[in-house]
Automatic annotation (TrEMBL):
Position of sequence motif DGA/G: 269-271
Keywords carried by this UniProt record: Hydrolase, Lipid degradation, Lipid metabolism
Active site: 84 (nucleophile), 269 (proton acceptor)
Protein name as it appears in the record: Acylesterase/phospholipase RssA
Superkingdom as given in the UniProt entry: Bacteria
Region (Disordered): 225-244
Gene3D superfamilies tied to this protein: Cytosolic phospholipase A2 catalytic domain (3.40.1090.10)
All residue ranges annotated as the PNPLA domain in the record: 41-282
Length: 441
């Protein structure tokens, strides 16, 4: 047992080099979409986040859309973002759409995912953790591919009739998000379309020590150029007046191309730098309009709502009931929640402040586009936040606190969280006002 642990985790690079670079990003094919759009962001939080977000998606799947007959609001999701446990749900939904909701509850929320992982407190696992991670590629990434994604890649999920997927992990070298998109893969001169979706999701959920990092190789030293003499894809332009957070992210993309000691990227849980996915959305919004929206949808939109689904645990617990020092695990969990809570709130506030200016940029882009489908200035954009921390019922609040960041939940807890997500969306005043403004079918 000790010898097996001494071997170290499997952290071989999981990406392939880019064989040919065109110098431009391929446009997403047009799709038959209506004038209603939804941007969803699911926070981290293991299966708790996935179950809570599943309830939100279920409510959208039960609400008729003003588009074609039989269409529901879940079909109007234009962008779906996720972190850690939220990335599992976001990726599955981007791959299968609302038709996959029932199978997601069965194949992920209804399964004992942790049975396939090393989770015991043992000398062998302590040694594995010391050497880089208790679980490696043979654990969660393999389980995700076998049970959920079945060989799907980032290219597979880029369907013209589906939402754009935005998931990220944490690049430890740069202390910034690594967003799994074409621009990030171009920055390390790596192939995007054939990268396994399971590995991207596993990277977003790779809690340090419990999981080994997902490793990417930086191929910039041997990056090819366009066969017709063009240049490598340029880094996204930096917006004038960019914040320090935005500047650091842009500089990280440049560093992939220039740093002489950045041969391998070690990717861990995305919640370390962006626990609710809003910061990654902001990074994309600060590129050229209409990002992060797919162009076909952006041209037609008249009604757009951002729904931020935050499954962070509530304030409270038993730490303050006695003068005794909390046990180690309770301290680690509470300290981690404390470190990410305020940055999550700040990130949401930053997104809310950015929306009016971003809406104007999208409008200018639409009006400059030849033959826009919708009246170019007719665009209503709003944002709401659904949070477990806002549950005020004492019984429900205590139950939420007992559901820690695990990958497996009891069936009754899945139902409890899903019902909360469904109810909080339906009762949200901003969402109800959004529905009231939609045209009648």
């Amino acid at each position: 047992m000790v010898l097996a642990a001494c071997a170290g985790p499997d952290v071989r690079p999981t990406n392939a080099p880019l064989i040919f670079t065109t110098g431009s990003l391929p446009p997403r094919a047009a799709a038959d979409v209506g004038d209603v759009g939804i941007v969803l962001a699911f926070s981290g939080g293991g299966a708790r986040s996935a179950a809570f977000g599943y309830g939100v998606l279920s409510a959208l799947a039960e609400q008729a859309s003003p588009g074609a007959k039989g269409r529901v609001l879940a079909d109007d999701v234009a962008v779906v973002a996720g972190v850690s446990g939220g990335a599992v749900l976001a990726s599955y939904f981007a791959l299968h759409g609302r038709a996959g909701l029932d199978s997601f509850r069965r194949d992920f929320l209804g399964r004992n995912v942790e049975a396939s992982l090393r989770t015991s407190f043992s000398p062998a696992n302590l040694l594995r953790g010391y050497r880089g991670g208790v679980n490696d590629l043979s654990g969660f990434p393999s389980w995700l591919d076998t049970n959920l994604f079945h060989g799907a890649t980032l290219g597979t999920v880029n369907r013209p009739d589906g939402p754009r997927l935005v998931i990220h992990a944490t690049d430890l070298y740069n202390r910034t998000p690594f967003i799994f998109d074409r621009a990030s893969f171009a920055a390390i001169c790596s192939s995007y379309d054939d990268y396994p979706l399971a590995y991207a999701v596993a990277a977003s959920a790779a809690v340090p020590i419990l999981f080994a990092p997902i490793t990417l190789r930086n191929y910039q030293a041997d990056c090819p150029v366009d066969r017709e003499g063009g240049q490598r894809p340029p880094s996204p332009r930096q917006r004038q007046g960019a914040s320090l957070v935005e500047r650091q992210y842009r500089e990280s993309l440049d560093r992939y191309r220039t740093a002489t000691d950045l041969d391998y990227l070690k990717l861990y849980d995305g919640g370390l730098v962006d626990g609710i996915g809003t910061q990654s959305l902001l990074h994309l919004m600060n590129r050229q309009a209409p990002q992060p929206l797919p162009e076909a949808r952006a041209r037609r939109l008249r009604h757009l709502i951002f729904i931020i689904v935050d499954a962070s645990t509530r304030v409270g617990g038993d730490l303050s009931r006695t003068p005794e020092s909390p046990q180690a695990m309770d301290t680690i969990v509470a300290a981690t929640d404390a470190m990410i809570n305020i940055p999550n709130l700040q990130s949401f506030d930053a997104l809310r402040r950015r929306l009016p200016g971003w809406r104007d940029e999208v409008v200018r882009w639409r009006c400059a586009t030849a033959a826009p489908v919708a009246p170019c200035r007719d665009l209503d954009v709003r944002i709401i936040r659904l949070a477990l921390a806002d549950v005020t019922d004492p019984t429900g609040a205590r139950r939420i606190l007992s559901l820690h960041n695990k990958l497996t939940l009891k069936p009754e807890d899945v139902g409890f969280l899903a019902d909360l997500g469904r109810r909080l969306l339906r009762d949200n005043p901003g969402y109800r006002d959004f529905l009231d403004r939609l045209p009648a079918r």
